[in-house]
Amino acid sequence: MKAVIIIAIAFVLLIPIPVFADPHTIETANDSGLTLECGTQCYTPNTLTVDVGHIVTMTNTDETGIHTFVSGNVYGFTAIPDGEFDSGMLNLGESFDYNANTVGKFPFYCSLHVWMQGVLIVQEAEAEEETMMEEQKDTTSWFSWISDLFSWIGF
Ligand SMILES: [Cu+2]
């Protein structure tokens, strides 16, 4: 029994730790091909921002339909692809990897269900660092606000 537990623990330790930090995935909502009700959530997330050079995995997770991810614009019910990416037909569980090597804002849609629309934003790598620094600054000012408050109360 002891040996079994030790082996079990050894196996757990051998399992590589998956990287959850930055998956860059876009999925399709359930029933998104059957009804327009998914609205701005037909693709989840509806808007994704990544650094240039990263890979975006676009996956059909909708059990009820075949979908595509095509970059371009939809005017009414007329879709006009811009040629940046086109996943082709994706069955349930199939995915398409897009190498985001072009900086820009890429609206995309499903060519079979044009109400399914999302936006992929590809930004310069420095932009993300700037955003992080901004967030850090915000946190710093929040801390100083709290400490100001405490000193005002008399702590
Ligand atoms: Cu679709």
Count up the helices.
2
Largest sheet data:
5 strands, mixed
Q: What structural class do the secondary elements suggest? A: alpha+beta
Terminal-residue CA separation: 57 Å
Give the name of the CATH superfamily of the domain at 24-131.
Cupredoxins -  blue copper proteins
How are helices and strands ordered from N to C?
HEEEEEEEEEH
Distinct ligand kinds: copper (II) ion
- Unreliable stretches (pLDDT < 50, length at least 5) are 16-21
The total of beta strands comes to 9
What's the CATH class label of the domain at 24-131?
Mainly Beta
Order of strands in the sheet with the most strands? 3-9-8-5-6
What labels describe this entry?
32% strand, binds copper (II) ion, elongated, single chain, alpha+beta, Immunoglobulin-like, 2 helices, 155 residues, four-stranded mixed sheet, five-stranded mixed sheet
Structure description:
The protein has two helices and nine strands, in the order H-E-E-E-E-E-E-E-E-E-H. The chain has 155 residues and is an alpha+beta fold. It has a domain at 24-131: Cupredoxins -  blue copper proteins (Immunoglobulin-like, Sandwich). The strands form two sheets. A five-stranded mixed beta sheet has the order 3-9-8-5-6. It binds copper (II) ion. Copper (II) ion binds at residues 33, 65, 67, 110, 112-113, 116.
